[in-house]
Amino acid sequence: MTQPTKVAVLISGRGSNMEALVRAAQAPGCPFEIALVLANKPDAKGLEIAAAAGVEALCVDQKPFGKDREAYERAIDAALRARGIEVIALAGYMRILTPFLVDAWEGRMLNIHPSLLPAYPGLDTHARAIAAGELEAGCTVHLVTAGVDEGPILGQARVPILPGDDEPALAARVLEQEHRLYADTLATFCRGL
């Protein structure tokens, strides 16, 4: 059997998608391992969750870099390469990336977004879908490119918008699908490497 693909998950907060990926990686025959969880904020709750699961948890704090986003990303890139990371999975990583990191990991960086792209890129996806009268919402896993939420789509899951839905109710149902979709899509992606 070939070695599992070494994946780093980048987070900014609680890391529920990261936690789902860590669980998926523990299944026999999973084609990826979560080798690193990296956060841009020292108080990211997901760091504790990763460490408790036996995954290396690292904070590369964005604050000391001020407005020099590329210098910050060079520090991240160095940490990833030092650990032999092969694929990056963004999971609630709330920073817009510079061309440096996007180009350095082209074709090897995935993101999950809580809408059916190309509809509703960016923030407030659930509220925007409800306000527009959509009948369904969902989530998308895509490759990261220079444009925000514009990369090639690798997988989607659909969720009906129910009468009386509000943003938290819809977000909770979409998040359930995110956890399943991200693990399945990452597995398929890694098998194809």
Largest sheet: 7 strands, mixed
CATH class wording? Alpha Beta
**Total number of domains:** 1
Could you give the order of strands across the largest sheet? 3-2-1-4-5-6-7
H-E order: EHEHEHEHEHEEH
Radius of gyration: 16 Å
Strand-residue proportion: 15-25%
Task: Please mark out the parts with pLDDT under 50 across 5 or more consecutive residues, or reply none.
Answer: none
EC number: 2.1.2.2
Domain Formyl transferase N-terminal: 6-185
InterPro entries: Formyl_transf_N, Formyl_transf_N_sf, GART, GART_AS
Site (Raises pKa of active site His): 149
Overview of the molecule:
About 35% of the residues lie in helices and about 20% in strands. The chain has about 190 residues and is α/β, with parallel strands linked by helices. It has one domain: Rossmann fold. A seven-stranded mixed beta sheet has the order 3-2-1-4-5-6-7, covered by helices on one side. Helix 1 (about 15-25) packs parallel to helix 6 (about 165-190).
